[in-house]
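Comment thread on ticket #2218

A.B. wrote:
> Attaching the input chain for the structure job we discussed in standup.
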Amino acid sequence: VQLVESGGGLVQPGGSLRLSCAASGFTLDYYSIGWFRQAPGKEREGVSCISRSDGNTYYADSVKGRFTISRDNAKNTVYLQMDSLKLEDTAVYYCAALAFGNYYCSGYQRASSYSHWGQGTPVTVSS
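C.D. wrote:
> Ran it. Output below, let me know if you need it in another format.
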C-alpha cells in the first residue's frame, strides 16, 4: 500500500500548482482522501478532503476559494489544484487516506484519522 505525491516545486506568489497523489496496492476510491501540509516549525495542518461516499469536498479556511481537490478513479489519483498561492502556503504537502470506513471525511483535519500517508512533496512560494 503506497501513496506517492508529485507536482510540488517553486512558484511565485499568485501562481498555481497542481499536486497529484497516486495510489498503488489499493483502490483510492474506496477511501476518503485528504491533503495535509507542514511548514517549517509548524504543526501539520489538514487543508482539504474529498469523501468516498459522495465526493463532497472540504477545505480549511486558509485555502478555501483558492484550492480545489478532485479525484480521477480511473487513474487511481487524487489532485489538489492550488491557485492564487501565497507565501504562507509554503510547506511540504502530504496526501493521506482516512481510515477505511470513514466515508464522510469525519475528523479530516486530525492526523490521527488517517491510516496511510505519502512521503510528501515540497511547495515553495517565493518571489
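A.B. wrote:
> Thanks. Noting for the ticket: DSSP finds no helices and eleven strands in the chain.
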